[in-house]
Amino acid sequence: MTSTDLAALRPRLPSPLQEIEDDRFSRRGVRLSLKRDDLIHPDLVGNKWRKLAPNLAAAAGRPILTFGGAYSNHLRATAAAGRLLGLPTIGVVRGDELADRPLNPSLARCTADGMRLRFIDRSTYRRKTERSVLEGVLRAAGAEDAYVVPEGGSNTLAVRGCQALGEELRGQADVIAAACGTGGTFAGLTAGLAPGQRALGIPVLKGGFLTAEIERLQREAFEGRRGDWTLDDRFHFGGYARTTPELDAFAEDFEGRHGVGVERLYVAKLLYGLVALAEEGAFTTGSRLVAVITGAPFPC
Length: 300
Ligand SMILES: Cc1ncc(COP(=O)(O)O)c(C=O)c1O
Hints:
Elements lengths: L2 H5 L9 E4 L2 H4 L4 E5 L11 H13 L4 E5 L4 H13 L3 E6 L10 H8 L2 E6 L1 H5 L4 H10 L6 E3 L6 H13 L6 E6 L3 H9 L5 E6 L6 H13 L5 E4 L13 H14 L8 H13 L8 E5 L8
Parallel strand pairs: 2-10, 3-4, 3-6, 4-5, 7-8, 7-10, 8-9
Antiparallel strand pairs: 1-2
Bound molecules: pyridoxal-5'-phosphate.
């Protein structure tokens, strides 16, 4: 796999920056733009391109083995990359009980794209980064030579790949906001911004552990904390994949207002958080705010 093979997939980079008119921001004097990373590539959507591309190059044609939950955007993107680039892919899925059930649409898409799925029990899954457990997983999959990408795709190469997202936003915004899962996208994005730009992360998981994790990812990728950033932990709606009728209604309303599909696990919580923060007066009058659209709804 070379960067030429990846370039042949014609990613739309830099991704478009789209200013939108939304009275919930404009009445506070805030200009809102969407950084349309969801338009980078129809199959490697949003942060998936930025995180996977450097890993696909590093895999150099070896099979890719990675991890995810039953609805993982990352597993789908890895499977699609395998199809597009002719690479074998293996997806290790959390929950051995899923092996006996019909595949959900997300996992069915993975297998349609040629990914081989392996289901493992939740307690082994939790220990998947331990060397002996990982070796067992690779052996059981018959893939000892595979290139391993961690859950969510957030390794050092991925974090460095997301630095380009921040660099594309230099001079374009005062505050840049993005949803965080593992924190890899945000760790890279914030490192790419210019001095004076501020980043705001909205974690979609409950727990409050992410500041330390993002600092760790930045230390590994850049040898220290980078950028001016904070997290706001109030908009996880109970945790990963949790939602409420209010959040669903918000996302539908946003789609109706702006004609942009709102991915529900991450982007909906980001946009909801930004509206709430604007109402609290968290953004100064005259500021330019960018929301990073890190994904698209599935099924599209
Ligand atoms: C659509 C979308 N947005 C945001 C994220 C969060 O990315 P990260 O895990 O790098 O924090 C993910 C997960 O990869 C995602 O699928």
